[in-house]
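Q: My labmate handed me this sequence with no annotations at all. I'd like to see what the chain might look like in three dimensions before we decide whether it's worth expressing. Could you predict it?
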Amino acid sequence: QIIRIKPDTKVLVISALKDPATGLQALKKGAAGFLPKPFTAQELHEEIRAILEQKS
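A: Here is what I predict for the chain of 56 residues:
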């Protein structure tokens, strides 16, 4: 819903579901990234950095 309202918004989906289909679905719907739980602070930092470095 956020992406429909403001398409330039970069969304990172965090989920307890590790199923690859969940991540793929999030990306197909416009998420910039997907991070399954559990994750370390370092993994979160790296994912955020990668998303912010993506070209719009």
